[in-house]
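Model it.
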Amino acid sequence: MAGKTGEHAYVGIASGEAGEETIDTMEIEVSSAKDVRQKTMPHTPLKSPGPKRVKAVQEKDEISTSVLYAAIQSLSRKFDENSEYIRAFEFQLKENTDATVKISESLDANTMALKGVKEDVDNLKSQIVPHSPEQLQNTVDTVHRLGKKVKGARPRQIIIQFGMRIVRDMVWRMSKNAPVCMERKIRFREDFCKDDREAHVRLWPKVEEARKKNVKAYLRDGYAVINGVSGAGWGVSYSPSHICALKNSSVIMSCTYTYPTGHQIMKVFWTKTNVREKEEEFPDLSEDPEYSQRLQYLGDKQQNCTIRLSHVTQKDEHMYCFRFITDKPDQKWIGNPGVNLTVTDRPKSVSVSISPSGEIVEGDSVTLSCSSDSNPPAEISWFKKRKFVGSGRIYSISNISSDHSGEYKCKSINEHGEKYSAAVTLNVMYPPNNVSVSINGSGEIVEGDSVTLSCSSDSNPPALNFSWFKENQSSAVGSGQSFSALQSGRFYCEAHNQHGSQRSDAVTVTVHPGADRNVIVIAATSGGLFIIIIFILFIM
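Modeled.
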């Protein structure tokens, strides 16, 4: 019969009647998660396997079990290793996430702080010029503080960049007597570029001289206005006539123009050239693809011809002129000379070149040149590793020596930033120097022994040829970096490379006579073999 009990399957055949042959049984072991039980299964008697076959099966089972166990252990180890990697990765990820959160919080705090500064500046601006609030709206492009915040230090300065020069000049002029500035002890000052500062120094004596003659004169940015009121004829006036701007910033070219009465303005535009072909008009910048998206005309068709040029680059360095055309034939005008625009930038593309470019030998003259793309021109400093060694675009070394070997780089700096070049290496070749001889052990030996002498030197490239000499002898007594001396005397070495040679000071080797030696020879025969025994007796 067949059946199933719990999780144990079994097959059974009932035994025969009494007197019938009893059928042998075969035990079958079936295991489950709960227990292990034995079931018996009747079967026809079979010849049991021999002992060798059973043993082979057992050995095979044991081998399979050991291999399986080793594989399980290997997988377990790899799982543990991967778990460690995962934990380390999770820990690093958490640290990076925390750092990102801190940076984000810091940026948010700085943004909020700058927003608060801009609100303060707008509020202050409206108090300085209270009668023109609508004119002052959205006239400040950017504000930022100088330096780092230090507890207990004086308040940091604030840089304000105005979008319109007219508004900047108005705030600057009225701030001098504004009650809010006096009450809060606030002082405005103009932030000039280098060219404007030099222009002020150069032009101020002329302004003073004009004032002594009761002529109206004053300085504005980088130019001087002396009795500068134009008549009612044709003319264009630029304020200022030279502008220096930082790369990627916006510039305002302030401009006014006049023309005789009875004319109507038909067209106004700016151009960057005062040369044109016959019968052709000057090119209009607003129609130039390089300028059309960056140029904004802020003036009118009456007197104001101011423009704003955004995102300036060094390609924009030109003289810009205003042009206007009236309703009368051939009644047109161009304001020439116009506004000269200079675009400044922090240093970039800083590099060092070495002359001569080949092998440098001790005693040569070497020149290092630093090139830098910057506007205004940068100041150059030279460093050997971190030590300052000189300034200027050219750094010259005459009668160079091994002490000058090393890495050099230059630093380019102007008012907008600084940049270092990549390091270059000066490798100075020189002949051997500081040649010396060292003795391995004592310089005193017994006759029959030897002492080893070694030669050392400082050279570039290293010396490969060494010669050994005994004083008062013209020919060499040995070669190589080491030499074995067998006799008394004063010895020195000479080191050579392709750039020269140098000899060392001499060292003294002393050989003492050896002790008396007695030699005893004993001869004997043994089984046809002749044996000689020599005794050497040293008598000390």
